[in-house]
Amino acid sequence: MLTLSILGFLAERPMHAYELRQHLTDLIGHNRPVSDGALYPALNRLRQAGHLERQAEPGSGAPVRQVLHITESGRAELLRRLADPRTTEITDGGSFFTLLAFLSRLPDREQQRAVLRRRLDFLSQPAGFFSRSGSPLRIKDVDDPFRKGMLIMARATRQAERTWLEETLRELTDEEGAGETPQGADRPGGSG
Amino acid sequence: MLTLSILGFLAERPMHAYELRQHLTDLIGHNRPVSDGALYPALNRLRQAGHLERQAEPGSGAPVRQVLHITESGRAELLRRLADPRTTEITDGGSFFTLLAFLSRLPDREQQRAVLRRRLDFLSQPAGFFSRSGSPLRIKDVDDPFRKGMLIMARATRQAERTWLEETLRELTDEEGAGETPQGADRPGGSG
DNA sequence: GCTAGCATGTAAACGGTTACATGATTAG
DNA sequence: CTAATCATGTAACCGTTTACATGCTAGC
């Protein structure tokens, strides 16, 4: 997930690791803080895989400021990961939201829709904690007030998300039918 | 989080690892599946720490069925972790829900309230992705339809949870004022 | 001079994922 | 006899957390 967000942000524009970390903190640091011990090794892995490059700024400081650029290989990897997410990236709410944050980068509307549809399918099948050994569980039958709260909120959240997904899927289909141009992916010549 | 749920379920009653895994799957497997490679090492760690014991059933099978019992030390550890959760267990939605699933085990209403209050405090301060470099971000200003969806859903979810937390905190306070007895924690003599 | 923020990194320990390994029981 | 489910575990790999380490720059 960290890797995906790094590629996603660097696909927008080159930046320093420090600035990148701030964006990452805004996006996913809400839930768990982004640590340097995770970020810098992740950047090195991406660099070794050829997905990004860095250029030292000739300026002053002892830790030389490094500008990170995404490579073509990195852009391809980003699109691949957006178009073909793993199961956990669909089922885990936090991961799916990260996916959503960069889904506009996919140039193909049908690919975008496919991702949303996978999430909708997942949300449409009953969740584990909504049933006790197979049979559906009614909120009234739950004595524990905290577990009852869990169920109420989980149900409401799932319902809200399903509604949004259905609406958005409809809009995406209508738009394509009307022949509008997709927005979000880089136009040629936009970098540098 | 896995460790906490193991202690939580075993505090209810002794069971086999296999049955425990089913409960864990119902509770947290919704988001990410519970793997044996995570479960069995976790059980061994808890056993080494003295938080649980296992007894082989004299029956048949080649992999002898092991009944897992929580120890007094394990119960103490569970209460400690419920009463004094780490920051990430408050801020991460998934972790907080796991906490919630076992919060009734805390015998002290004020301790329960303190946990809910911490979550409420966290939800009441602005989230990272609701602001762009300090200034609040209006949903209208977001062009990207998927990021807009994220914001709408995140905001709705946070609002719903805040409402529930406030309501529940009020109820817990009223109850205590009226002198009702807390339910959920083990009554003396209840274990086998 | 000190503190806070900018800026980059490493190392040990920990825990989770994935794949492997074994074998019993039950239903078709 | 075969497949699914019950049942327990190990090992290699991978990524995250936590703590440590360094040094500049700006404001008080």
List the defining traits of the structure above.
192 residues, 8 helices, globular, DNA-binding, 8% strand, 58% helix, two-stranded antiparallel sheet, mainly alpha, homodimer, 3-stranded antiparallel beta sheet
Please tell me about this protein's structure:
2 copies of one chain form a homodimer. The first copy, chain A, is 58% helix and 8% strand. With 192 residues, chain A is mainly alpha-helical. In chain A, a hairpin with a 2-residue loop joins strand 4 and strand 5. In chain A, helix 7 packs antiparallel against helix 8. Chain A is globular. Chain A starts with a helix and ends in a 14-residue tail after the last helix. The model of chain A has no long low-confidence stretch (mean pLDDT 87). Chains A and B meet through helix 2, helix 6 and helix 8 of A and helix 2, helix 6 and helix 8 of B. Chain A binds a DNA duplex (28 and 28 nucleotides) through helix 3.
List the helices and strands and how they pair.
Two copies of one chain form a homodimer.
Chain A: H1 2-12, E1 15-16, H2 17-27, H3 36-48, E2 52-56, E3 66-70, H4 72-83, H5 87-91, H6 93-102, H7 109-124, E4 131-132, E5 135-136, H8 145-178
Antiparallel strand pairs in A: 1-3, 2-3, 4-5
The first copy, chain A, binds a DNA duplex (28 and 28 nucleotides) through α3.
- Indicate the low-confidence ranges of chain A by residue numbers: none
| CA gyration radius of chain A, whole angstroms | 20 Å
Q: What is the β-strand count of chain A?
A: 5
* Strand residue percentage of chain A: 5-15%
Largest sheet descriptor of chain A = 3 strands, antiparallel
Structural class of chain A: mainly alpha
Main interface: chain pair and counts: A-B, 42 and 42 residues
Series of secondary-structure elements of chain A, N-terminal to C-terminal? HEHHEEHHHHEEH
Distance between the termini of chain A: 26 Å
In DSSP terms (H or I, runs of 4 or more residues), the helix count of chain A works out at: 8
Assembly type of the chains comes to homodimer
User: Strand arrangement, largest sheet of chain A?
Assistant: 1-3-2
Outline of chain A: globular
Q: Averaging pLDDT over every residue of chain A, what do you get?
A: 87
Helix-residue proportion of chain A? 55-70%
